[in-house]
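We were asked to recover a plausible sequence for a given structure. The inputs and outputs are reproduced exactly as logged, with field labels preserved.

PROBLEM: sequence recovery
POSITIONS: 199
GIVEN STRUCTURE:
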């Protein structure tokens, strides 16, 4: 892959504004709404598509690094607000989004090339990305389990402090017990369900 530069479209549209992108001091930003949207779109492309840091993006775009940090924070908040994952961890979500976008670009390239070796190289890269995506989902599952365990522990603490007889259990983990113990546990759970004491 060749070295990445800021898109020609962005540079052409902002030639006259490059001087105001890095002022020595200013009380208010010089950007119009349209300029801000174009800049943020470019920051999104460089940060989420290519994984560039705020410092690198600021150098490429000749924009103050604090402005770039603000744009990146803006995109993180937008993406975070659109997620339905229980208690999302932002780093994991952004990593997943970046991997999925990379996979899409590679898949499009496979249809454009004809040589076998090139196709195999791209397919290996897609396999690596798929493996990473699976790892990310595993981490999300672990995160959801950790949060559920924490909330269950807090709930049980509350029930104990308030002298309530019920306690809540997590059934995510496999337990190795004797057949007799298994039957007893199932009997107890069934009895509690009949009494309406389960969640």
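RECOVERED SEQUENCE:
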């Amino acid at each position: 892959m060749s070295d990445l530069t800021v898109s020609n479209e962005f540079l052409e549209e902002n030639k006259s504004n490059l001087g105001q992108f890095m002022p020595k001091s200013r009380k208010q930003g010089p950007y119009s709404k349209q300029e801000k949207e174009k800049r943020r779109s470019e920051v999104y492309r460089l940060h989420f598509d290519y994984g560039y840091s705020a410092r690198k993006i600021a150098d490429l775009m000749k924009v103050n690094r604090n402005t770039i940090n603000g744009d990146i924070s803006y995109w993180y908040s937008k993406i975070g607000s659109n997620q339905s994952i229980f208690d999302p961890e932002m780093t994991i979500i952004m990593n997943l989004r970046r991997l999925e976008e990379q996979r899409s670009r590679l898949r499009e390239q496979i249809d454009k090339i004809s040589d076998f070796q090139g196709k195999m190289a791209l397919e290996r890269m897609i396999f690596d990305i798929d493996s990473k995506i699976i790892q990310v989902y595993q981490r999300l599952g672990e995160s959801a389990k950790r949060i559920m365990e924490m909330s269950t522990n807090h709930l049980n603490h509350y029930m104990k402090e308030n002298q309530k007889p019920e306690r809540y259990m997590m059934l995510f983990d496999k337990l190795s017990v004797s057949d007799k113990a298994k039957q007893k546990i199932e009997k107890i759970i069934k009895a509690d369900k009949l009494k309406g004491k389960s969640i």
